[in-house]
Amino acid sequence: MYVAVVGVGSPATNYDLIVDTGSSNTWVGASKSYTPTSTSQQTSDSVSVTESGSTGFSGTEYTDQVTLASGLVVSGQSIGVASTAKGFKDVDGILGLGPVDLTVGTLSPDTSSAIPTVVDNLFSQGSIPGHECSVYFEPITDSSGIQQNGQITFGGTDSSKFTGEITYAPITTTSPASNYWGVDASFSYGSGSDSTTILSATAGIVDSGTTLLPLATDAFNSFQKATGGVKDSATGLLSITSQQFGNMKSLYVTISDTVFELTPNALIWPRSLNSIIGGTAGSIYLIVTDNGSNSGSGLDFILGQKFMERFYTVFDTANQRVGFATTPFTDATSN
User: Fold this and answer.
1) Active site residue 16
2) Which of 40, 177, 228, 262 has fewest C-beta within 10 Å?
C-alpha cells in the first residue's frame, strides 16, 4: 500500500494514511488515536464507511485543519474519527481522493449530505490552481517493502514524472464504475497475430487502494489459460515457472484509443517481496486476479497500484476524466 503522512490539528499530529482514490472519506484513528486541538470541532454526525470486503470504520465526524505538505493546508476539513476500524494494520486511516459522491450516505443523521474531499477544499479555498490531483508511483525495489517512491501533485501535473502526452478518458457512464474514477477499457494478451482478447471494451475503475489487477472471472480465466498460470495455495495468486515467464507476453490495456502496455515484468509480483505475501523465495507470481464476478457487472476490472506504478495517473474533477501517461518506469525490469 502507499501511505502519506498527513497532519491533523494545530499543532498537528501526524497520521499515516493510505492514499486511496477508490474512497473519498478522509479519516484517522485506526492505530494512533485522534488528538483534538484548538482547531478541532466535533459535528453532530456519526460516520460509517465499509470498504471492500470486511474492512471499514465507524466513529464520529469532526472538522479540523489538515496539513498535506508545507504550505498546503486545508481549513475546516471534515474528517472521520474512528471508534472502531477493521482491516487496517500499521496505518491510521485513509486519505480519500475519490469522487465526492462516494461520501453520500456515510453520515448520520445527515445521510443525504456529501463531504467535500481534501481536493475539493484545497480548490475552493484557493490553495491549488486546478480542481484535480495527480499520482505518481514507482515499482518497489526495497526488499522490506518500505521506501519513498511516490508523489501526489495537488492542483495539476508534474511533467518531470511522466513521459510523452497524457491520454484522458471521460468517466464511464456504466454503473457502478461511474460512481468512482471509472473508465472504459479493453484488454488483450500479446500482439499482432498472437493477440488474445482477454476482456472486450467494458467499465472498471482506477483505484490506488487496490494492490493488484483484478479482472472479471471470465477474463481472468482467459488470462490464466494464456499464461499457463497455476493457482498457488499459499498466496492465492497465479504462479508460473521461469520458462513460462521467459515466454510470457505483454498485457495491453486500451483506453480512449491509446494502448498501455503492461510488460511481463510489470505483470509479476516483486520477487524481493515474496515473503510478505507468504510466497516462496524465487517463485514467480502474477498480479492479475479474479474479481469474483463475470464481465458485465458494471465493474469488470480495477487498475490498482501495480498498474499505477507503471503509468502516471491524473484524477481531474473539474473535467470529470482520468488521465494516463507513461513514465521512466513503464518498461522497468525491477521485478
Assistant:
1) no
2) 228
